[in-house]
Amino acid sequence: MNSKPYILAVDDIPSTLEVLTMALNETNIKVVCTGSGIEALKIINDKTPDLILLDILMPKMNGFEVCKYLKSKHKTKNIPIIFLSALNSTEEKIKAFEAGGVDYITKPFNILEVLARVKTHLKIHRIHEEMNNLIKESFHEIYTPLGMIKSSLTLQEIEYGKNEYIQNIKVAMLSLHSIYEDIYYAIKKDIKTYPVEWINIENFLLERVELFKPQMNTKHLKYNLIFNTEDAMIKIHPIELERIIDNLLSNAIKYSKESSIIQIIVSQLNEKIEIIIANESKKIKDIKQLFNELYREDQAINGLGIGLNIVKKICDKYHININVVEKDGTTRFILQFKENQ
């Protein structure tokens, strides 16, 4: 964000725009005004504002429509929008927040209140932008050391063989790498393209399970890979399939009872490929919340609470059915892919 904030004010009443412009200019804020929602979108396309003051009742394109459109686009979805409107019913205010607004001020307004709210939301927006930039820049700093640790561990094993200490380091490194991949995907999923390709499920699962063996060993877990169908293929981007399988395997390992067995079963049901990942665990508190963002079933177990949410979003994207079933002390995550997907 520039040192001098840039605000777009959208209202079809010229006198309102005049008052806003005079007050905001006095606080060292640059203001651009328009009386049209359609014109506002053109202005935003040329230069993204730090904040938008948006009227609701406007001809051709109302404020709700403008807000929803902006929130649907990656480039503009994070712009804070404050509604300014003569509509003062609770229903209209709820509708404004549901459309994506961060605040709602009724007309006639007190300009001092408007200025106070604008400054607050500009500050919050600036903090969010700085944090997002910090996270993005941090990935480059994190990935290189992780790669070096992974390579060094491999060479260490080749030269000196495996031992308990190396395995512990490997487990910690794999956990960090999985967290890195989840956060990276969460940040990039809306702007990066993921072209699909045909993937052999058996080969893919054998490779992913092999990576998780060190983590399984820390809890003395074993696994059974059962393929009830041959040459099962699905169409998806490998990175997105990795996020699905890795998160479900990681979840199974975290919540499995010591010295138990994780079952991974691949079957064909009519025109669907089914993958079941099952583990012995204690009863889930609330299955309905499992895929919610930042939800963690057990706060004592390490994790960020984003893995299963990413799984659900990818499944929704590819129309993959995912269900969780509990029975006789076993939790089963069931994925169903269309064979021609």
UniProtKB/TrEMBL annotation:
GO MF entries: phosphorelay sensor kinase activity
SMART domains found in the cross-reference section: HATPase_c, REC
Keywords, in A-Z order: Kinase, Phosphoprotein, Transferase
Pfam families: HATPase_c, Response_reg
Entry keyword annotation includes Plastid: no
Ranges where the Response regulatory domain occurs: 6-122
Histidine kinase domain location: 137-341
Residues with 4-aspartylphosphate modification: D55
InterPro entries (alphabetical): CheY-like_superfamily, HATPase_C_sf, HATPase_dom, His_kinase_dom, Sig_transdc_resp-reg_receiver
UniProt protein name: Histidine kinase-, DNA gyrase B-, and HSP90-like ATPase
Source taxonomy: Bacteria, Pseudomonadati, Campylobacterota, Epsilonproteobacteria, Campylobacterales
